[in-house]
Amino acid sequence: MDMQSEKQPILKVAHVKKSFGRNQVLKDISFDLNAGEVLSIIGPSGSGKSTLLRCITQLETLDSGFVSVNGKDMILAGQTKNGMAKYAQASVLREIRLSTGLVFQNFNLFPHLTVLQNITIAPIRVLGMDRPAARNLGLELLSQMGLENKARAYPCELSGGQQQRVSIARALALQPKVLFFDEPTSALDPELTGEILKVIKSLAEKKMTMVIVTHEMAFARDVADKVLFMDQGVVVEQGTPEFVFGQSENERLQTFLARFSG
Length: 262
Ligand SMILES: Nc1ncnc2c1ncn2[C@@H]1O[C@H](COP(=O)(O)OP(=O)(O)OP(=O)(O)O)[C@@H](O)[C@H]1O
Ligand SMILES: [Mg+2]
What we know:
The chain is α/β, with parallel strands linked by helices. It has a domain at 109-175. It has helices at residues 3-7, 49-56, 90-98, 115-125, 131-144, 160-172, 190-205, 217-223, 241-247, 251-258; strands at 11-20, 23-33, 38-42, 64-69, 72-73, 75-81, 84-87, 100-103, 178-182, 209-213, 226-231, 234-239. The strands form 3 sheets. The protein has a 6-stranded mixed sheet with strand order 8-9-10-3-11-12, with helices on both faces. Strand 1 and strand 2 (23-33) form a beta hairpin. Helix 6 runs parallel beside helix 7. The chain is globular and about 50 Å long.
């Protein structure tokens, strides 16, 4: 890795705005993330956290602002069309899409495919990987997730925690540069939550760059290099976990955090 690419943020988000009809959901969101860092995003329901992740991962289009991933610009800076942001050409968007992964709250596994097929389908179809190589990769990832004995099971035969570990393996199979999690544990019982948090922690130790939307405040504090607090479509506070959870005197943040310390 050359010096230049180490210094550039791997994810750059600047002045992102997004409305649904008259409802402006993202009002002006900016943050940077360096390679190997973990960002936790916290904030009340409806504050725009999922919308932000969906805009960055191209499941949703943004109205204006700038996003770059791994040195590739998703938006053509300074250019607009009918007042809206202009996106980069399709091949660049595809490349950016392939460099991001998203893990959903509800796992979203393909129910008619086995666990192993769920993991290998994208490497085979999207990356053109040959089947034996994809299979080896899939088995390797399953063993990392402690699920080597579930390769031939179907998603409905797994616990929620196991399904979520499969969906993390599936995201990792495309070797993303940045991995996004949208409340990865909120559909899980407390004991299954722990196993997912452990997996995410181990990815952080391996210096996987991650953005994690979570309501698990202790985890958000523990795993993150940076924490961002969103409320009503704006970044109200961001900084180190020590600052956001310990020192900030922001009133909206205090009110939000008080709800979790009961
Ligand atoms: N596809 C959509 N069409 C219209 N409105 C939407 C759409 N998606 C989200 N919204 C609205 O955008 C706002 C923000 O929603 P979003 O899901 O981003 O919030 P969130 O912070 O992820 O909340 P939660 O913590 O409950 O998951 C909400 O008012 C929601 O109703
Ligand atoms: Mg959400």
